[in-house]
Design a protein that fits this description.
heterodimer, A: 309 residues, mainly alpha, B: 341 residues, alpha/beta, Rossmann fold, 2 domains, four-stranded parallel beta sheet, elongated, cell membrane (chain A)
Chain lengths: 309, 341
């Protein structure tokens, strides 16, 4: 098992390193404190959204509303949290609770998460459009300061990614509760037989996803300084791709928080790399898909080799 | 080829270059690199915009006005993606970014970073609010008002209007709609009885209008945002209703339809939109800023109006599937700058 866990992280890490080396070779200017921050700072909200998605995939569900949810959080952060911090905070907390309730409902009524979250994405989108009908708002000062801080040694983007990876690693992999949560995804019935209240665990997993979704939206506004209702729609697919790229699997219970963060960084870097290559935008989406397939193929090859051995 | 011929060629080239430098500050910008950051390429307007930029850029590079002018388009039309694109341009060492933004505010962080790194940022069409950037804006609200003014001049009796809006949540859509509503307030003989989103695309507009038509009373006019007039006309025809006065948006299919209607039954209307060539204007403004010219931060570009009299000429010069266009030159840019001073 420990070998598997190690394998899980080696491949995403190697993909990131290879891509990073290629980027540095093509654009030596990126190889600096300033350059690394420019290259990766927008990956921080994506990494947080990817962790949110990972929480859902961990319990064997999938969340198609991450992008709309992060957009909504961004809209609230740029308006209410800035103008009336208490009300804004209350709204964000309410969103997290809603997410937890959504998890409980999905489990209690045995609904397909893919349908519920798809439906909820329209609800989030509608509320976001209601709050911010046209783009605007502004980032709370403290958030902007936090996202543009210049720590010594390594740039903010790198420090933040490491912090996110370490914290979620302890939360999901090392803690007892994290182990049970992964168990829910792996085999909910046996967790239930062991005396755990699965409905509460599912609510917890969804609540955690909501929490990280909220953090993603706030981080995003700290970087962009304002929001619009469509700002993060592409995060839905990016976050799913990030989880899978980082070694997670759709079968539930098999996830890697560190891998998910690395997956998010890799996806961000991949699009920058393609842009440095001066590839026509018509080909870029396809090329991104090709990178994804390449990494997944490599994983399959590794796993087969391991099975043989 | 003899050496003397070579020398002659080189001399004449130098003369041409010298002449060009006199009027465009070439000496200062010949080593500068300009990038176009564009958020969307999926409609006829944007395609024409990209083409105009590329033509202008190619010529400028060939004449040695700038060292490079490359166009980049994001694949998913998302602000976060474009912010990353702008940050990449900083890393690629461009001197100026000409920007058609996915959001007026969500790119401010990236634009500020570009300014801090010493880049000139000129936004146009989709402008950004970050104070360090230049803005070449179109008064979209005035465009909306003008549509209603025109309707009032043609239909003094007033009546019911149908409004076709653009893409929800986008700044341009909001501005044009505000202008239209302000116009209706002024000319209170009109009433907007229905409003649908046509997403600036004929097929979407046609579906949306067809969906709302059965619930509407008689409509005398349709106010639009461009790219939706032809679809609206098709929906009216399919529903078997009289074609109202539809304000058009300079697309070739709209102009074609207008000309056909005119020849058939003397249909009269107005068509207005901004010319995609505004990208070339933004290019020259960026070049002027790089050349050290003192350029005001806020510039306005007039919209391109096509009337009954200019219809034939406009239709002739507009390729099929495209949109009526004007290519701006350095002189045009200097004129716009002088006007704003």
């Amino acid at each position: 098992m420990s070998l598997l866990a190690r394998y899980r992280i080696i491949l995403p890490a190697v993909s990131l390193a290879v891509l990073l080396a290629a980027t540095f070779w093509m654009q030596p200017r990126a190889m600096s404190y300033f350059g690394l921050n420019l290259l990766f700072n927008l990956a921080v909200p994506i990494a947080l959204a990817t962790i949110a998605q990972m929480m859902i995939i961990m319990v064997n569900d999938i969340d198609l509303s991450v992008g709309a949810f992060v957009s909504l959080v961004a809209c609230i952060t740029a308006t209410f949290l800035n103008d009336a911090p208490v009300l804004g905070l209350a709204m964000l907390l309410a969103l997290i609770v809603t997410y937890a309730v959504m998890g409980a409902v999905i489990h209690a009524l045995d609904l397909p998460a893919i349908v519920v979250t798809l439906g909820m994405s329209f609800v989030w989108g509608g509320i976001a459009l209601f709050i911010l009908p046209s783009p605007g708002g502004s980032s709370p000062g403290w958030l902007r300061t936090l996202m543009t801080v210049k720590p010594p040694l390594a740039p903010m983007a790198v420090v933040a990614s490491v912090v996110i990876a370490v914290v979620t690693h302890f939360l999901v992999i090392r803690s007892g509760l994290g182990t049970v949560l992964r168990g829910v995804g792996g085999n909910a019935r046996s967790v239930q037989r062991a005396g755990w209240p699965v409905i509460r665990l599912k609510a917890l997993a969804y609540g955690l996803a909501g929490l990280f979704g909220v953090l993603a939206g706030m981080a995003l506004v700290g970087l962009t300084t304002s929001a619009d209702a469509n700002i993060a729609l592409r995060y839905t697919l990016l976050s799913i791709a990030g989880v899978i790229l980082g070694g997670g699997e759709f079968t539930g219970g098999k996830v890697s928080p560190t891998g998910a963060v690395i997956g998010a960084l890799t996806l961000t870097l991949a699009s920058s790399f393609l842009s440095f290559l001066r590839l026509s935008p018509d080909w870029q989406i396809g090329a991104q898909g090709a990178i994804l397939i390449l990494v997944l193929t490599a994983r399959l090859v590794f796993r087969q080799k391991r099975a043989e051995a | 080829m003899t050496i003397s011929k070579l020398l002659l060629g080189a001399a004449s080239l130098a003369m041409i270059a010298g002449a060009a430098s006199a009027e465009s500050h070439m000496a200062e910008t010949s080593d500068k690199r300009i990038a176009l950051s564009n958020n969307y390429a999926g409609n006829s307007w944007r395609q024409a915009m990209l083409q105009t930029f590329e033509e202008t850029a190619e010529e400028a590079v060939a004449n040695g006005v700038v060292a490079a002018a490359d166009a980049y388009t994001t694949s998913e039309n998302q602000a976060t993606e474009q912010a990353a694109q702008i940050q990449n341009m900083i890393l690629q060492g461009y001197d100026a970014i000409v920007l058609n933004a996915a959001s007026p505010t969500a790119l401010n962080g990236a634009v500020k970073e570009a300014c801090d790194a010493g880049l000139t940022v000129v936004s146009f069409d989709g402008i950004v609010t970050e104070p360090c950037a230049w803005r070449i804006a179109v008064d979209f609200a005035a465009m909306g008002r003008e549509e209603v003014d025109y309707l009032a001049s043609r239909l003094p009796e007033g009546g019911n209007l149908l409004e076709i809006r653009g893409l929800a949540g986008v700044f341009v859509d909001d501005e044009i709609s505000k202008g239209i509503h302000a116009g209706v307030e002024e000319h209170d003989q009109f009433e907007i009885v229905g409003s649908v989103h046509g997403d600036w695309a004929q097929d979407v507009a046609q579906k949306a209008v067809a969906g709302i038509l059965p619930s509407l009373p008689e409509v005398v006019g349709v106010v639009t945002q461009g790219g939706d007039g032809y679809g609206a006309a098709q929906a009216f025809e399919a529903a078997g209703r009289d074609t109202p006065l539809i304000v058009l948006g300079n697309r070739q299919d709209e102009l074609q339809w207008w000309a056909e209607q005119r020849d058939e039954n003397g249909y009269e209307t107005l068509s207005l939109s901004i010319a995609p060539g505004v990208a070339s204007l933004a290019f020259w403004v960026a070049q002027q800023v790089l050349a050290g010219e003192d350029v005001p931060k806020d510039l306005t570009v007039p919209f391109l109006k096509i009337t009954q009299d200019t219809l034939d000429a406009a239709l002739e010069s507009t390729p099929e599937g495209s949109v009526a266009n004007v290519v701006y030159t350095l002189e045009d840019a200097q004129e716009v700058i002088a006007e704003a001073k």
